């Protein structure tokens, strides 16, 4: 029940709450006031009533006096006026007597009234007898009855006086009781008003607190939020569905949704950042590769032009083999010079062919290069340029250069599980597992020259042919960037003089 | 922490408000309750709400309404009247100023009462008025003392002869016990006593003295104390003991009314005559009881006044119902002295005391 009421109160609008408070307290005060006023009025009326009886008795006595006096005057003067007066007085007196108690009760006052009534009846009887006797000039009779009526007159007067005194005494008692009541009422009303005032003050404090407390809590939370302590701001308690409650609910929603927005913003920023970084890295690596070849291209450009001139010269002189050779060299350089961000596998393999042809011319066909292509379609796969050539170059330079036996390089393209695998296998000196790991992880690039030499199986010989590893590393990185961080390069070597196999796995999109 | 404190504070205020509210309601309720109780009390005072209506209205008229004797008679009558749905008023009680028996009788006759209970006497005026009452068909019962000519319907009282005999017995016994040669014995009477009852009492005492052959030793005299004049009785009695003739004052006083008994007792005590004067009293009141206990009063005759009152009402009712009633009804008078004082209920004959 109390919970229901407090819930109802909490859900009430502030404006209604305040109205109810003001109207309620005012009504309460008004009611108490009305109660007091009513009672005070009652007492006053009762006090008035108390003395009403005495006034009536006095009137009765006056009326009796008038009867007796007019009778005496009539007896003295026998004037018509006095007779009229007497009749009038007698009538009035009789009328007044009717208001008296006539029955026998044990109430002394009423008993006295009864006796007054009957005595007065006897008196009036006697008086009228007296008047009749006077009219009949029966002197003796009227004297006698006048004497008797005089006696009765005195008794009645005495009774009235006694009754007056008696009622005055009891009235005094009533009066003191009444005035005690008034005093009591005064004390009562003072106590009541003090309590009422205290109650009202308490009620006002309670209701205003009820109204301002949620506001206070809300303002504290708002301050916290504005100070940036969004995370540590607890949810503000909703006390009811009044105006403040509505604001609080909205505030809570706001506070809870802000971190969401921030997170989303952060995520999108991060994504953008990653994208940018990737782009930059890609470009950097490409630039790096290109720089290297540009450095080389300064001469190759010149070489390319001169080679072209040379090839034409060879053609004119019908030196076909020279012409072919110069053509291939020119093609090699052309490939390098062209912008080759993204090329087909076929183009890459063509470059490898050219490269191996040139080397074979240089080294008198020492390199036995074989291609094993499973499906021509696989050659359409796209990959960044300048990938295979450096690997083949590595295989030739470090793998088979210094071996006594015939050097073989096999390039295989095949499909495994929807991926295009490009394998470059040599039968050279092979690689230690540590070296493979270092190469793949990129550590190799950071090693000093000595260390690099130590790592290799071959011993330092007369001609310096140490690789810098950048080529290989660059290949790996560019592939990774191109294929979104996938590691697609693997190196397999079974140990010293067991050859090395580099396998590049590319996703095959049909 | 702060929140908890605040919650506590709020709870405190809420509790305080609720407690205050409850107190307020309680105060208002109590105030209303007590206030109305007061108002009702006042109203009771104002109206004396015990207004019971009665069929008949009798009045009791006596000259000495303020004595315990008559108060007791009145109480008896009042109790009995209640049973017959009648009300008895001790007429004159409510009136300011004192009125003579004649006045009161006149008032009663003219007040249309249903019956008059009156202490009879010899007064011609009284007789006149009683006859007048008879004329007006108001039944009259005489109590304590009779008025034979008044055509009263009944007399209720102690037989004067028996009373005199009882006093005589007391007197002779006392005289026989003591050696003193002669005793001056004074019989104090009220003028409320009718002449006949006065003489009957004296005759009865004399008879007893003669029977015991003590005529030589007892000098019997009688004195009628006037009761109508205010304070006269006390003066007259004082004169008997300490006045000019005090040397001839009585050795034994026989008092035939409560008032006389008390006056004699007071005089004896005041003038240091205890032991010199033997008192035979009448009626029992706390003072008389004390005096008997102190042996200042030798003995007293106790009349069952309550019964007297009751009987008078019974006679009235009987008359009202059947039209006639036994003309006389005697009430017993018992002797009380120090020996049987404790047998008597502490209230004695005066229940209203």
Q: What fold name goes in the CATH topology slot of the largest domain in chain A? A: Four Helix Bundle (Hemerythrin (Met), subunit A)
- On the 0 to 100 scale, the average pLDDT of chain B is 83
pLDDT < 50 runs, ≥5 residues of chain B: 347-353
Largest sheet of chain A: 5 strands, mixed
Q: What is the CATH C level class of the largest domain in chain A, in words?
A: Mainly Alpha
SSE string of chain B, helix = H, strand = E? HEEHEHEHEEHEHEHEHEHEHEE
In total, the number of domains of chain A comes to 2
Strand order across the biggest sheet of chain A?
3-5-6-8-7
Give the helix level of chain A as a range of percent: over 70%
Average residue-wise pLDDT of chain A? 82
Within the largest sheet of chain B, what's the order of strands? 3-2-4-5-6-12
What does this structure look like?
The complex is a heterodimer of chains A (510) and B (353). Chain A is 71% helix and 9% strand. Chain A is an alpha+beta fold and 510 residues long. Chain A has helices at residues 2-11, 14-77, 80-97, 108-135, 139-226, 243-316, 320-337, 345-362, 388-400, 433-441, 449-455, 470-482, and strands at 104-105, 342-344, 367-373, 382-384, 407-416, 419-426, 489-493, 500-507. Chain B is an alpha/beta fold and 353 residues long. Chain B has two domains: 56-158 and 306-333, Rossmann fold (3-Layer(aba) Sandwich); 160-302, Rossmann fold. The chains are: A alpha+beta (510), B alpha/beta (353). At the A-B interface, helix 2, strand 1, helix 4 and helix 5 of A face helix 1, strand 1 and helix 3 of B.
